[in-house]
Amino acid sequence: MYRWCTDEVEPQERFDYWREVRAKGLFGVTAELERERRADFFGEFSLRQLGAGGLVELKASPYTVERSTSDIAYTPGDSICVYQQLGSGGWFGGMRGSDFAIANGSFATSHTDLPYRTAPLDAGGFHLRILKIPVSRIPAQDRRIRELTPKTFNDHALAPLLAACFADLGEVAAGDDGAGDDGAADATSLVQTSLVQALAHLALIERGIVRPGSRLGQAALRTARLSQARRLIARQLQNPDLAPAMVADLLGVSVRHLHMLFEAAEKSFSQTVTDERLKRSRRLLREAPERLIADIATSCGFESLATYYRVFNAAYGMAPGDFRARVPEGH
């Protein structure tokens, strides 16, 4: 992963460096800011290569951005972008069609090689994630992909699926920073590729280019629903009555469909729940040495202390107290 921040440059040079080297050279856009405001400018970003895509997270003081025809000619991208707004909001304009605002937590899509202008809506500045996927790496080939002017997501049913995929992609990428053996790295790469493809096709479903019932559409929806199901499980772990029917209802699918999603994964629904409860309990054993083991078991959704001891010992070959005793102080 590549990270960069304006703190690495002298204050009087920060915006000029951001504009010429980062904005124009890396992102292919023209950045502008009134000269009297440049001394206080701050910007940072990270860039990860994930599967076929590149994931950028960007934070910056307010300024205006334009992707003009000359910028496009200078730095063609031929990619689609899926944007996730994390800050207070942003404005897009200058396209064929109406201007629009994108609110915190919302999504937008575009093709890289169409003109636009954008700026943050308030003094909070920019904070967003951008997943950039080359058109050549997207199985759904359609000339309309290159006509995607910037547009917000209007399908409220798809937005939670995008949020789940984006969150999983960030977590898988963070875990990859400490990846060890080649087998684990290969598995991580496959997950990243699957999530990137799902995000690309969800965006194309929303824009009417990929049909939800097509092979590509169904594959994207399965991947995204599985991501969302896992996140719903994580939010409900403390509930000892956590069951497939509860998650299926929250996900808006049948129990049978939920089980089919997990059949394609490495672990079943019940195995996933148990694994997540054990992982959370291990974290609490490490981070809260003063906390009673019985309290940890209850907070992770185990129906009894005896069940927790039995499941923990079967998974790790030791009791929770022995695991806690082996954790070095401060870890």
From TrEMBL:
GO molecular function, one term: DNA-binding transcription factor activity
Keyword Transcription belongs to the record: yes
SMART domains: HTH_ARAC
Keyword list, A-Z: DNA-binding, Transcription, Transcription regulation
Biological process, per Gene Ontology: regulation of DNA-templated transcription
InterPro entries: AraC_XylS_family_regulators, Homeodomain-like_sf, HTH_AraC, HTH_AraC-typ_CS
Annotated HTH araC/xylS-type domain residues: 227-326
Pfam families: HTH_18 (PF12833)
Name under which the protein is recorded: Transcriptional regulatory protein
